[in-house]
Amino acid sequence: MSIGTSSTAPRVSHSSRRDNATILIRIHARNEKSLQKIIDAHVHLSESRDDALIRFAKMNGLRYTMDELLNTMRRYGITRGLLLSPPLKGDAILPNEKIIALCKESDGLLSPVLTVEPASKEVKAAIKLAEQNRKEIKAFKIRLGYINASAESPVFRVLYDYAESENLPVLFHTGDTAFSTGDLVRSHPLTLDKLANKRERLTIILCHFGNPWFDDVAELIYKHPNVYADISGLIAPSDAYADKFMEWLARKISEAVYYAGGAEKVIFGTDYPVTTHKEALELVSRLEIEESDKEKILWRNAERVFRL
After folding, report:
1. How far apart are CA 11 and CA 242, in angstroms?
2. DSSP states of 152-203 as a string?
3. Helix-strand-coil percent breakdown of the chain, rounded to 5?
4. DSSP string covering 105-150, please?
5. Is the pTM of this model over 0.85?
6. Residue 71 and residue 65: Cα distance in Å, rounded?
7. First-to-final CA distance of the chain
8. What is the tens place of the pLDDT at every residue in 171-197?
9. Which of 13, 75, 106, 253 allows an S-S link to 239, with CB 3.0 to 4.6 Å?
10. CATH class of residue range 20-305
11. Domain range list for the chain
């Protein structure tokens, strides 16, 4: 699912979910030490009353606070998380400076991702922040579908140059938009194909696996050595066809892994508070792939790509 507030959000009931994910992953963790580590590459938090994701938190029964997030991460064995700006009411975003400040309060569990809006001033400000916080910043994020720009807009050229020079990935929102006014033409994952062709040194990460265009994302991660996809935010609170929808998601992601010949390009993320940790981990447990590939999804790929 896409990040924001959604009237067309993917559907899975949090109230009916079992603890399968926790049980399965902890069983594997006891048997294979490497599975004790999980990295969540897509997290939101603001502690602002204007946060547009608060309604998702309420629907999921979450308090959506730093204490809750850190305690939940520890409970599920999540050792690191990447924090992204959530949308605020009025189509604004939480300032990147606040994201950096929140990460400093996380006991080392969270690292910042800078969201970059399509204006020269914003691009320069993001690069300056990255320069000032070189050891902390792990990536940039562009909100395709929510902004009046495409991935190839000239305004982002300087950002891509900098990201390439510093080996910093760029995350792109792809797929379903949370607002009915979102631009699906610009958020379609295939819009990243030309950019990946032109920028082979730029690490591109497609957020939300381009939902519902999973097959297109499977082709992109197969075709391009520099393109990855995260599985964050695919499940939002709803009761309609909850279990069937979870099965469908697991099948589509598993098929993408088959097509790509492995899970080296797939990264775990929750999109907290849109998707709960319990549901996100259950989705991984339902994938019909090798345990070694689940391990890659849960932490190995993120550790390598984000240099954690």
Report:
1. 6
2. T-GGGHHHHHHHHHHT--EEEE-S--SSTT--HHHHSGGGHHHHHHH-TTS-
3. 45, 15, 40
4. TTTT-EEEEEE--SSHHHHHHHHHHHHHTTTT--EEEE-TTTSS--
5. yes
6. 10
7. 25
8. 999 998 777 778 788 989 999 999 999
9. 13
10. alpha beta
11. 20-305
